[in-house]
Specification:
This protein has 2 domains: about 5-85, Orthogonal Bundle (Rna Polymerase Sigma Factor, Chain: A); about 115-195, Arc Repressor Mutant, subunit A. It contains 9 helices and no strands. The chain has helices at about 5-10, 15-40, 40-55, 70-85, 115-120, 120-135, 140-150, 155-160, 165-195. About 30% of the residues are buried.
């Protein structure tokens, strides 16, 4: 993919190759973000299409204060929230940090020393994916953008419209929740391997 200034120039000039390069580079990440919120593959695909359509039609509004990737994440996140709002029964993610002192893990097993080949097998990946999807809607997008997609704390905050402190709190809680949920599974695996 070309450097961002070159890519922006090409996109603004209507270059279809630039759009194809941007789509190829970012569609999967935007899809994962939308899917983590909506939990519906068809709706997540619609959000990706909507995101690129908005990006093309509103590219003049992009001021360049953030990276283009961050702006696309923000557009996809807002489009996902709009769809969630239309689904009346599901609560929307809150913009305020949760009350301090939430539940802490009851069982903590040290599983970081599990051999990498074990961790990366299909069963472990499925367990991890299930645990991520089980995170509350307020924690899931923060974890996904920060730990899976590798955005910085500031980029994640900007993409989700939160302040950096809220991102830190939610990321910490997401990691604790995942650790608690996965500790029993990886504890059993360690016991089976005799580690």
């Amino acid at each position: 993919m070309p450097a961002e200034p070159d890519l922006l120039t090409a996109l603004r000039a209507g270059d279809p190759a630039a759009l194809a390069a941007l789509f190829e580079a970012r569609a999967d990440q935007l899809y994962r973000l939308a899917l983590s919120l909506l939990r519906d593959p068809a709706e997540a695909e619609d959000v990706v299409q909507e995101t690129f359509l908005k990006a093309l039609t509103r590219l003049e509004q992009f001021e360049g204060r953030a990276r283009l990737d961050t702006w696309l994440y923000r557009v996809a996140y807002n489009a996902s929230l709009d769809r969630l709002r239309r689904r009346v029964p599901e609560p929307l993610p809150e913009d305020e940090p949760e009350a301090e002192g939430g539940p802490l893990p009851q069982v903590i097993v040290e599983w970081s020393l599990t051999p990498e080949n074990r961790l990366l097998d299909a069963e472990a990946r499925a367990m991890l994916e299930t645990a991520i999807q089980a995170l509350p809607a307020t924690l899931r997008p923060v974890f996904l953008l920060r730990d899976i997609e590798g955005l910085s704390g500031e980029e994640t905050a900007e993409a989700l419209g939160l302040n950096a402190g809220v991102v830190k709190v939610r990321l910490h809680r997401a990691r604790l929740a995942l650790r608690e949920r996965l500790s029993a599974y990886f504890g059993e695996r360690l016991a089976q391997t005799g580690a």
